[in-house]
Amino acid sequence: MLGAMMKFSQNKKRITTHYATYMPIFTVFFLMGCSDDKSNGYNINQLFPQIVPQVEEVDMGEVVVSYSTENMFQILNSGRSSLDLSVSVSDNDDGIYTIIPEETSIPVNEAMTFAIEFEPRTYLEYNREIVIISNDPERPQLNIPVKGVGIDGPVPDISITPGFLDFGEVNQGSSRTEYFQIQNSGTGVLEITDVAITGSEDFTVINGFANTAYAQGQSTTVIVEYAPTAEEGDNATITIQTNDPDEQEITVTLLGNGGGTFEYPIADFPCPNQVDPPTTISFNGSESYDPSGLEPLSYSWELIEKPQGSSTDFDDNDSPTTPLFIDSSGDYTVGLTVQNTIELESEQALCSFTAIPDKSVQFELTWNVGDSDMDLHLIQRKDGEYNLFSYESDCCWCNPNPGWGDPGNNDDPDLSLDNRVGYGPETIHIESPYDGTYGLFVHYFDDKGGGAATATLRIYINGTLDTEVPMVLTERDLWQVGQFVYTGGVGTFVISDEDIDLNTQQMCN
């Protein structure tokens, strides 16, 4: 009788199937016949399997880290029914040991050979147990010690630069050559055992390098020629087999005249249509992928367009998911490019959206220089006057959320952004303004080297830009922008053309 046996290849990290003959076990069984005491009826013997290990311990020996070795052990069934069992290794979450098969059934009087692979990840002793769970009622669990040691030793490490060759546009009847370099960055001898080209036959490797070896630090240059025979683009793959334990097979992609049917990486991420500033958006590019499976991908985010006066940008532009603070109203465009493991880039995926306040009223101040500090003031008029720096009536950097109108927060102003280093924005919004008249002022608080600056105030009413007005200011200037009147749910802004009665209390100093 033949039984399947799985075995690991010595040179490659793949499993090949072999066949081994089960070992017949000749055992004499004594069967009981019928009882002489017929009053007791028949005597029935239940048949059970019996597990018999052929080893007391499995020693994998010393193995250079990143390499692997294999060993064999046998289990016999000397019982009288089929032996069903599952095999695993204790404390093996790291996958250092692998056993084939993990589950099987051994017929009566036969044996099964198991393959065990040991691949150490670091320089340690790996003392564990092979755990065999079976239907043998006498020994339902059998533990066999297994041990191996990870040691230091010479290991080759192949490095290919670049990972792809793009020949660009080449006319029929012409040819172009490009090259890539293979280097052994490891400590052991690098052996290239096989080289194969699949794909378009318009690519040719000029200098053969199969069945070659390279000592530590040695390298070779591989020259490839592209001579297109048709108008369509071409692509091919050079597959290189090596003894590098981490990269036993490595590929170089060849592209000509656009690559033809070659599929480049795809950058993709959800795009918002409209947002309410100020807010933070999390952009997630994890839906990006490489059709050829050359992953993980590298990510590159870019803020292509933002409103004038916005000072935002990506703090982290090379992660799959990254936040972007939307500090100003207006139009934004975000781009994402991904790169696969051989450094081929995708087309840039674009996302354009608009930041529009959904508050009833929002006032936004920006200016055009850095190293400067301007302050936005929204002052509630009382007794015909505007009291600058008043706790009761001035919403500003030192009084960002005064209580106005009825109890509650909906009719209170909120300074949601205060910028002290240049450009702005500074933003004040009111969810549902209390009926009244409000003065808008801009104070050039501190010139830190920025000099004269053009301040721009934008007023949004019910999500629509109502007014945009600029003014050139120098240090200590106070710009009386105008008055905002809110009555019965309707807001109106009037630009100042004359001085407004203003009292200064210097409360914040």
Short overview:
0% of the residues lie in helices and 50% in strands.
Keywords, separated by commas or semicolons:
509 residues, Immunoglobulin-like, 4 domains, 5-stranded mixed β-sheet, disordered N terminus
Number of strands: 38
Radius of gyration: 39 Å
Reading side by side through the largest sheet, how are the strands ordered? 4-11-10-6-8
> Structural class, from secondary structure content?
mainly beta
Q: How would the global form be characterised?
A: elongated
3D structure, described in words:
The protein has 509 residues and is an all-beta fold. The protein folds into 4 domains: 2-151, Immunoglobulin-like, CATH 2.60.40; 158-259, Immunoglobulin-like; 274-355, Sandwich (Immunoglobulin-like), CATH 2.60.40.10; 361-504, Sandwich (Lipoxygenase-1), CATH 2.60.60. Helix content is 0%, strand content 50%. The protein contains no helices and 38 strands. It has strands spanning 2-8, 15-21, 51-53, 58-64, 69-77, 83-89, 97-100, 103-106, 110-118, 125-134, 141-151, 158-161, 164-166, 176-184, 190-199, 203-205, 212-214, 219-226, 234-242, 249-256, 274-275, 279-284, 298-305, 321-326, 330-339, 349-355, 361-367, 372-380, 386-388, 394-395, 414-417, 426-430, 436-447, 453-461, 464-473, 478-487, 490-495, 502-504. The strands form 10 sheets. Strands 4-11-10-6-8 form a 5-stranded mixed β-sheet, with no helix packed on it. The N and C termini lie far apart (97 Å).
